[in-house]
Amino acid sequence: LCRGGLAERLCRLQNRERSAISFWRHQCISDVKVPSDKSGVLIVKILEMFEECTIQVAICQQLEQSPAMHSSEDAVISAGEPILKVLFARETAAHLKSRPQDVIHIYPPWQKLLLKNADVPVIMNTYFSQKVLLGQHSETREKTHGLMKMLIKKNIVSLAQTFRLDDLDDELHQESSDNQVACAPQIHNNCDLKQHPLAWSTVNDSLLEMVESQGAVGWREVQVRVVIQRVYCLPAREGYRSHVQGNKPPMSNRGMFCRLCLLVQDAYGMFSEVQLQSLSSADDIEQYFRRWEGKFCCLAGMKILQRTTRGRSLGLFSLIDSLWPPVVPVKVPGQSQDSEMVTTNLPPPSFCYILTVQSGEIHVEVDEEEQISNLYQPPAVHGLKEILQIDGCNERCSFWAQVLYLRLQTKHSIPINQREIWLFVTDFTLQNVVHTTPKVVAVSVSASCVLSTEITEALSVASRLVFFRDALWGNGRIICVERTVLLLQKPLLCSAAGADLSELTGPVRLDELDSTTQANSICAVRGTVVGVNESTAFSWPTCGRCGNGKLELCPQDRGLLYCSQCSEVVISPILKMQLEVFLSCPSRSQSTVKVKVWHEMSFGLFVLINVLLSLQSYEVQSMLGKEVGLLNCYVHSITSHPNCVGLEEIVLL
């Protein structure tokens, strides 16, 4: 705040005001009795209450007196005084906890406002107010009512209504139009009031209006109707583990805790992320988005967890930007609604509210029988070739690809559950092109991306066709981050956007090693053996049944090997090896190509190596000059000084 400016002076005034109110309330509690000084005190009896724009409005009757021996029901009512409309701030209303028939003493400096063309005066500045309990009957009634929740009617008043900006004829036309996405303010006919308690409350269609009218503490008797654009899981914070309801463990993502989330959009185009409860298993997320995405839902019992902006949540807003602009016209606050309104010029949202549920409240009511909303935007599926040609940065993309090889990040300083997973994928658009684009693309799966058990188990066994939804493309990389979903089945609702999504029919081809090959990729290698690194070569026996590489000497016969996993003597062990060979490759003639060979090999030259190793002897000279066919390799490193390429032979899924 500017020193000595109006804002600083106002802030000081508000602080003094809060201190004065707290001190006055403390005095009232200490004195027990009602303050004896009655000069200027306004005594009213509450007849009716409601809430409007976070202010509690009480329709009251002024009392001439409040006798100490009578209850509030017996208080004398002045017939000459008009009805008063008393305004209580939210903090004052929470302190009074008043209800109809209560008697309130309002101490100075209260003010009376006489409105033009209105018969009822308005009483403001009611911070110094006290509820009076007179007589045994009132005390008993107060204790009884204290156990009951007081439901106060809330009037939702929009700014457009306040300034009379809405055109009634356009509103009627909009509600009757089939092409509009405005949420109807009522529960559908197929919802029974007994089955859906939310139907008793008021339904709104604006997230921003709900936040402004209900505040951050929570929505009580009002709900908002929105469209579910995306369903996904987010890793929960460390502190969330203590908030898991009951003993039911949440969904596990590589050892992390996760919770179900919804990205919703209202009739005005505003987005909000709703963080719901934890899931009992990793397989539950698929059924949620198949049942919920594109459907209308009503939110109630929400509270604001955070108001975030683009600078704070780049990942969230990259997803929001992929859903912007809306596919159909949306409402514009303060303007008459026109079905021909152009939505392409609307500015994208600059902020978003993160909502969470309140314990014990009714949270989300999804109408699964309703048709898909016109506002819903299914993921636009593109071919990998088209994605690689996108010029933008931090663009969300969805594609359908074959996973050929999986590799875990090998940094030992990072815990296993926090390491990246690299998936090397391809599709029809990459396999049927010339050398302008690579035939295989590396997709990085960050630790923040939630993987279901079905995905991890399937990819550990064989090559699978996987649907990547809302992955992030930028700086030449495809990354699966928060809010990215991997599926084994294509969603029912998705648009192909003209991409060629034909499935692979023939064998998969890899790019051959050449001058354009980059580190952290896979390629095919052919060349001639020019050297062997004998210092790093070693071999070890493994069990022929289970593949266990930690065999022991048999206790009964020290000449035999014993497998502790099979609990049997190994009759026919398989000899495995590691060996580094140097190749001369025509496609990379200026580089030294070093290939690390692991385990058991059955390709050309390495069949000979296995045979020689099994005899416990081999001649290096016999391998020099041997031609090596196409080997599938992972590129570890490429250096220019010295000019060397480090490869490791791999087996594709």
TrEMBL record:
Its cellular-component GO annotations read:
nuclear chromosome; nucleoplasm
Using the record, list the residue span of the signal peptide; answer none if the entry has no such feature.
none
List each copy of the DUF4503 domain by range: 265-652
Q: Name one GO biological process term.
A: regulation of establishment of protein localization to chromosome
Boundaries of each DUF4502 domain copy? 1-113
Q: Report the superkingdom from the record.
A: Eukaryota
The protein's name is SPIDR protein
Q: Which gene encodes it?
A: Spidr_1
